[in-house]
Write a structure and sequence with these properties.
The structure is a single chain. This protein has eleven helices and ten strands. It is mostly helical. The protein has two domains: 93 residues, no CATH class; 171 residues, no CATH class. A two-stranded parallel ribbon has the order 1-2. α4 crosses α5 and α4 packs across α8. The radius of gyration is 24 Å and the shape is globular. 17% of the residues are buried.
Length: 362
C-alpha cells in the first residue's frame, strides 16, 4: 500500500509501496498534485475518486498509468454532485473536451519580486556555508530572520510574547554588502530565462530596487504577524472577561475558539506556521499555487457535521478573494459549504470584527 503527499510543508513526502505478492495490491494513493509531472512507469491502472474539473486535469491524471506498456485501465468514480453527474451522463464532453493552452502574465512586478526574494535567500544560504567568521555571521542572521517556525519572530525562548517584533535590520546591512554580487548573479539568471517582452521587470535597475527593498518587505510581514498575534491575544482576553460576566453569543464563542487555535498554533509550532510557508502565504516568497495569497478565510463546521476537518483555512490572493469572499457568497471546500460570517479588516489598533450574517455554516 502506498501513500503520496506533495505540500510545501516541513514534513517529508511519504511514498511506500508493498511488494507484489498473492492477496496484496501494489498501489499508490495520491493527492491531485500527482498530475504535475510525476512519472511512475509501472502503474497500469488509475482510479479517480471524483470527476476532475476540466479535461486537462482528467488527461493529466489518467496519463500517469500505462507509461511502460502503453495500455491502462482508468476508472473514475462519479459522486452525486451536479458536476459528476453531468459528465457521467455524457462522458465524451470530458474525454473530448477542449484543453486550453495555459496563459500567464509575466508582466507582474509582484510575482517577479517574490522570485527575486527567493533567489536572494538561496544566495544568502550559499554564503552561510563559507568558512570562518563570514559564514558564521550569515548563518546567525538566517537563524534570526528565517527560523524554522514563526514563533521565533514573536516569542522569547521562555515562551513570553515579544513586545515588539523581530527587526530585519541585520538583513538590510548584509544585503547592502552583497548588493553588487547579488545583482550580477540575478541579472545573469533572469537574462537566461526571462522573456524579452517583460525584460524591464528584471533588468539591473529593477533587480537592485528589489534587493534594496527586500529587508523592508520582510519587516512588513513580521510586523503584520506580530499585530495579528497581538490582536488575537487582546480579543481572547476581552472575550474571556465577557464570558466570566455572563453568557456570550455563538459567534463570540466561535471567535474565541478561533483565537485560541491561532495562538496555540504559534506556541506549538504547528506545521502551518512553518516560516517559508507563511512567507509564501503572506506574499513575500513564491507560493505553492497561484491561488494562494494574503487573504485568509477561517472555516469551522457545525457540531453536527462529521465528515471532513472540523476547522481549516483557505488562502486566496487579493483579486480572487474579492470574488470568492464577498458577502452572501457560498464556498465549497473539504466536503462542506460555507458562507461568510465575519470580516476582520486588518490586524491593527483600529480593526474591528464586523458581523455580516450568522456564523460559518457547514
Amino acid at each position: 500500500m502506498g501513500y503520496f503527499t506533495h505540500k510545501s510543508q516541513p514534513v517529508k513526502s511519504l511514498r511506500t509501496v508493498s511488494p507484489r505478492s498473492p492477496g496484496k495490491t501494489n498501489c499508490l494513493v495520491a493527492t491531485p498534485t500527482l498530475e504535475m509531472g510525476v512519472n511512475i512507469g509501472v502503474l497500469d491502472m488509475a482510479l479517480m475518486r471524483n470527476v476532475p474539473p476540466r479535461a486537462s486535469n482528467y488527461w493529466q491524471r489518467a496519463g500517469r498509468a500505462g507509461r511502460e506498456e502503453r495500455m491502462a485501465v482508468v476508472v473514475t468514480y462519479c459522486r452525486r454532485s451536479n458536476h459528476d453527474r453531468y459528465f457521467f451522463d455524457d462522458p465524451l464532453r470530458l474525454l473530448g473536451g477542449t484543453i486550453e493552452v495555459p496563459a500567464f502574465n509575466l508582466r507582474n512586478p509582484l510575482m517577479v519580486a517574490k522570485h527575486i526574494h527567493s533567489a536572494i535567500l538561496s544566495e544568502v544560504l550559499l554564503r552561510s556555508d563559507e568558512p570562518r567568521e563570514s559564514g558564521e555571521r550569515v548563518k546567525d542572521i538566517l537563524d534570526v530572520l528565517f527560523p524554522t517556525f514563526i514563533r521565533s519572530y514573536l516569542l522569547y525562548e521562555e515562551n513570553h510574547f515579544l513586545d515588539s517584533p523581530t527587526s530585519a535590520a541585520l538583513l538590510r546591512t548584509l544585503l547592502a554588502q552583497m548588493k553588487a554580487a547579488l545583482a550580477d548573479r540575478l541579472v545573469s539568471l533572469f537574462a537566461q530565462h526571462w522573456p524579452e517582452e517583460a525584460a524591464e521587470l528584471a533588468d539591473r535597475a529593477a533587480i537592485e530596487r528589489v534587493i534594496d527593498e527586500t529587508a523592508d518587505q520582510l519587516d512588513v510581514v513580521i510586523k503584520r504577524l506580530h499585530r495579528r498575534l497581538t490582536w488575537a491575544r487582546s480579543t481572547r482576553s476581552d472575550l474571556h472577561r465577557k464570558k466570566d460576566a455572563g453568557p456570550i453569543e455563538r459567534e463570540e464563542e466561535q471567535l474565541l475558539r478561533r483565537c485560541d487555535e491561532f495562538i496555540n498554533s504559534i506556541l506549538t509550532s504547528d506545521r502551518q506556521t512553518y516560516t517559508l510557508t507563511v512567507l509564501a502565504v503572506e506574499g513575500y516568497l513564491p507560493g505553492y499555487g497561484v491561488y494562494d495569497g494574503g487573504i485568509v478565510a477561517s472555516a469551522r463546521r457545525g457540531v453536527a457535521r462529521q465528515s471532513g476537518p472540523q476547522s481549516f483555512d483557505l488562502t486566496r490572493s487579493d483579486v480572487i478573494a474579492l470574488r470568492e469572499f464577498i458577502p452572501g457568497n457560498r464556498l465549497y471546500a473539504n466536503r462542506g459549504s460555507f458562507y461568510v460570517a465575519r470580516y476582520h479588516m486588518g490586524a491593527d489598533d483600529t480593526a474591528r470584527i464586523r458581523t455580516l450574517r450568522g456564523a460559518w455554516a457547514g
